[in-house]
Design brief:
Helix content is 67%, strand content 1%. By secondary structure, the chain is mainly alpha-helical. It has one domain. The chain has a two-stranded antiparallel ribbon. Helix 1 runs antiparallel to helix 2. The longest helix has 28 residues.
Length: 352
């Protein structure tokens, strides 16, 4: 348990004091955010705010994960390395996207096909690797099943599993990306989901099938290290949020949003809670659905359901203050976390 606390603390300190350095460096180099011309007019004041701050989250998380394990003498796990590798790979795709926006001086970076291809390649490598590397109990970081609170139904086979995981990774990384439209919204919501995964990892450790083989145990390879990864990224997000809260001094950019979406998907795969993440990350789901509904409605009927999508911009155009939207959306995210953790716990309760 000490590894969770140490890694989270180190990540928070690194992000808290590293972000101002990134702000100064990116400002000197002119790495400022471009703003959509068709967005809310209030956003034009944010033009030029340093972006690519997600680099700080990724670097702080990687350093803190290693330092935490070295200081506590706990061995790093295959699951932890793979999830952080997924986070780093997707952060790299986002970094290229952010850099192209800056280089071309526009709000669009990589073409959607190129970005999706990058996400697919990183996701496919992760999906293949998580079904390998068995431990002494013959547990791999994941297996070829769809899962909710545990694995559900029979194995679906390697190729369908890889396709499913790639779809998950692309979906969640883009969902966080769509949520990252207001200062602090995505980073604050991600903190809440990550906190939920810290609790899930600890609970799975306490009820590990290698310790007590019961019908309620969890056949998860590295539950403690999943809590460490979640706590480490949480700490990095916490330190970053100090500077990203309204009014933001820096934006995470696609570097951060794709990386955070990836780490959430990776945690869901390696804790065997893939479908539970739909509840835990309910805010991200709602915001993504608002875009799907808006685009679908316009193509079918020629009419828009919302004043603007994603959903947070709809409320901006209704006249809500940015901080009001962010805080209320955080509250909604918290309710989804409570619901998801409640389902997770109730399902564990023995039945007599």
């Amino acid at each position: 348990m000490k590894t969770i606390l140490v890694s989270a603390a180190v990540a928070m300190v690194l992000a808290l004091f590293g972000t101002p350095l990134a702000i100064r460096m990116f400002s000197r180099r002119g790495y400022g955010q471009e703003i959509r011309d068709d967005g809310p007019s209030s956003h034009q004041t944010k033009r030029g705010t340093p972006t690519m701050g997600g680099t700080v989250i990724v670097v702080a998380s990687l350093i803190a994960y290693v330092v935490g394990h070295e200081l506590t003498k706990d061995a790093m796990s295959t699951s932890g390395v793979l999830v952080l590798g997924l986070m780093t790979g997707l952060g790299g795709v986002g970094f290229v996207d952010d850099f192209m926006k800056i280089y071309k001086n526009r709000s669009l970076g990589l073409r959607s096909g190129a970005k999706l291809a990058g996400q697919a390649v990183v996701g496919a490598v992760f999906a293949v690797e998580v079904v390998r590397h068995p431990d002494a109990f013959d547990y791999t970081p994941a297996d070829a099943h769809i899962s909710f609170l545990r694995d559900v139904g029979p194995a679906i086979g390697l190729l369908p599993f890889v396709l499913w995981v790639v779809l998950m990774i692309a979906g969640w990384s883009n969902a966080v990306n769509l949520t990252d439209g207001l200062d602090g919204l995505a980073s604050g919501a991600a903190i809440l989901v990550l906190a939920g995964y810290v609790l899930i990892g600890i609970w799975q450790l306490k009820n590990d099938c290698t310790v007590a083989l019961t019908s309620q145990c969890y056949a998860v390879r590295d539950p403690l290290d999943m809590a460490v990864v979640a706590g480490t990224v949480l700490g990095a997000c916490f330190g970053f949020l100090w500077w990203n809260a309204p009014p933001a001094k820096i934006f995470m950019g696609d570097t951060g949003s794709l990386a955070l979406g990836g780490v959430l998907a990776g945690l869901a795969v390696c804790t065997k809670t893939q479908l539970l993440l739909v509840i835990l990350g309910g805010l991200f789901v709602i915001i993504t659905l608002s875009v799907i509904i808006q685009v679908g409605s316009f193509k079918i009927t020629g009419r828009r359901v919302f004043k603007m999508a994603p959903l947070q911009h709809h409320f901006e155009l209704l006249g809500w203050a940015e901080t009001t939207i962010v805080v209320r959306f955080w509250l909604i995210a918290g309710l989804f976390i409570a619901l998801g953790l409640g389902i997770f716990y109730v399902a564990w309760l023995p039945t007599y």
